[in-house]
Amino acid sequence: MNFNFINLQPYSNPQYFIYLMIALIPIILGLYFGHRFKTYEAIFSIVFLFLIFDGSHWQQGVNLLIWLVYEFILTFAYQYYRHHGKNKTWVFSLAVILAIIPLAAVKYLTAFPDNSIGFVIGFLGISYVTFKTVQVIMEMRDGAIKKVDPVTYARFLLFFPTISSGPIDRYRRFKKDYEKVPTRDAYITDLQYAVRYLFQGFLYKFVIGWFFGTYWLPKITASALVVGNANGGLKLSWWVLAYMYCYSMYLFFDFAGYSLFAVSISYFMGIHTPMNFNKPFISKNIKDFWNRWHMTLSFWFRDYIYMRFSFFAMKKKLFKNRIRLSQVSYFLLFLIQGFWHGLTWYYIVYGIFHASAICINDMWLRFKGKHKKQIPSNKFTEWFAIFLTFNVVCFSFLIFSGFLSQLWFGWK
Amino acid sequence: MDTKQGVLDILNDLTGEDLSDQMDENIFDNGLMDSMASVQMLLSLQEKFDIDVPVSEFKRAEWDTPNKIVAKVESLENE
């Protein structure tokens, strides 16, 4: 079954932005004159969501609706439970597990070869909406969120500029923006940022990202495969190194560009969706890198997995040694992140690689702290640290890309 | 008990440094604190001041200098 509707994937081509800007005009004028047209915003969002999930993608749309009903029942059942003054750990754990089950099932089922399952699995952006739901349940557990407003919750989960790939906002932050109308001065500043981010996004995604990803990467891939197969053994060549840098650049500019679009459209709507990237390639160590790369995801993992697990483990005194605990937490975090990327060896290895890197980084920082006087620190060591971090990161992206799997085993 | 001194004692245990002369220093930017240290700080604050600080309420930007931590603890004590 297929409907003959036009289907528009978010930010995929220039026409999309033309439609989007026309549809945004009433919202922009409204905010400029001090009104937030919530009904128009809702219609606008539903139309653009419909355009993502109609036509050939209609089955995903159905999956999204089923998912939404399910998570709504879960969230409000948990809220009902919390309002009765109860806060058992097992109920909380059950709620989190139930919230994650659809995503886990999708990750599991998509690990099978194409078409071996007779139906369409999941929908675009299921990860990001799941992260938002889990966050709300966790903050209800803590009492930080007392009452979830169903309409705001739906708007938060389905906020269309960020639905497909983030950035991942926080419920309490979103609600604050959504409920107020910015002053004219503040909104003019928002518009300036919105325009700047939009054009920066064009440059990143459609120009620089295109050169790395569409223009160079296929050529480098072909050469690396040909030369690698001729060499035999581990099939390594300088082309693999070229692939590593080219893919890393592509990954950054494509995703940062996409994120800039999402933030830009949010700003047009007077919503300060958080930024996802902050010059990740000038990081001076791996820890610094994770504070700059895909920030809303890494902060989500930091706040809802790493810190919560550490807090729990420290309170229950599960580990004698704080250093050991931090290492266990890092492995937990990065393994979960690896599995979340997909059930494939290179995503898991990517997780283990980053967990190891960050533990080694911590060891070095402790060593450096103890030997402050002996270890030189100057412009050269700073540049060297950035250079080293950059290469470690690019190597991790080579693992992440799955190219090694393609080179060695012929599949990705 | 003096809140400021109590907070400084906890920070001293965690970072190995007396921060009394750098009350407005960003202790995350200069590498003295990280996520693990902040978890430990929250637990120590709960024990010492008998306040409840859920992890959800921990936003780095609101806890990143000794002065801000003191202010946070004082506001939570008065709740």
Describe what this molecule looks like in 3D.
The complex is a heterodimer of chains A (412) and B (79). Chain A folds into 3 domains: 14-181, no CATH class; 183-256; 278-412, no CATH class. Chain A contains 15 helices and no strands. Chain A has helices spanning 14-32, 38-53, 58-83, 89-109, 126-142, 150-157, 171-179, 184-231, 238-268, 286-290, 295-315, 322-341, 345-370, 379-401, 403-409. In chain A, helix 1 (14-32) runs antiparallel to helix 2 (38-53) and helix 9 packs across helix 14 (379-401). The longest helix of chain A has 48 residues, at 184-231. The two termini of chain A are 30 Å apart. The mean pLDDT of chain A is 94. With 79 residues, chain B is an all-alpha fold. Chain B has one domain (3-77): ACP-like (Non-ribosomal Peptide Synthetase Peptidyl Carrier Protein, Chain A). In chain B, 51% of the residues lie in helices and 0% in strands. Chain B has helices at residues 3-15, 35-49, 66-77. In chain B, helix 1 (3-15) runs antiparallel to helix 2 (35-49) and helix 1 (3-15) packs across helix 3. The longest helix of chain B has 15 residues, at 35-49. The model of chain B has no long low-confidence stretch (mean pLDDT 90). Chains A and B meet through helix 5, helix 11 and helix 12 of A and helix 2 of B. Chain B: GO terms for molecular function: D-alanyl carrier activity; ligase activity. Chain B: Belongs to the DltC family. Chain B: It is found in: Cytoplasm. Chain B: The modification O-(pantetheine 4'-phosphoryl)serine is found at residue 35.
Rg of chain B is: 11 Å
Nearest-angstrom radius of gyration of chain A?
Answer: 23 Å
What share of residues are in beta strands of chain A? under 5%
Approximately how much helix is present in the residues of chain A?
A: over 70%
CATH architecture of chain B: Orthogonal Bundle
Spell the H/E element sequence of chain B. HHH
Mean pLDDT of chain A: 94
Number of strands of chain A: 0
CATH topology value of chain B:
Non-ribosomal Peptide Synthetase Peptidyl Carrier Protein, Chain A
Query: Main sheet of chain B, how many strands, which sense, barrel?
Result: none
Distance, first to last CA of chain A: 30 Å
**Poorly predicted residue ranges of chain A:** none
Our measurement of the CA-to-CA distance between the termini of chain B, rounded to an integer number of angstroms, reads 17 Å
- Which stretches of chain B are poorly predicted, pLDDT < 50 over at least 5 residues? none
Query: How many structural domains of chain B?
Result: 1
Strand content of chain B: under 5%
Q: Characterize the largest beta sheet of chain A: strand count, sense, and whether it forms a barrel.
A: none
The general outline of chain B is globular
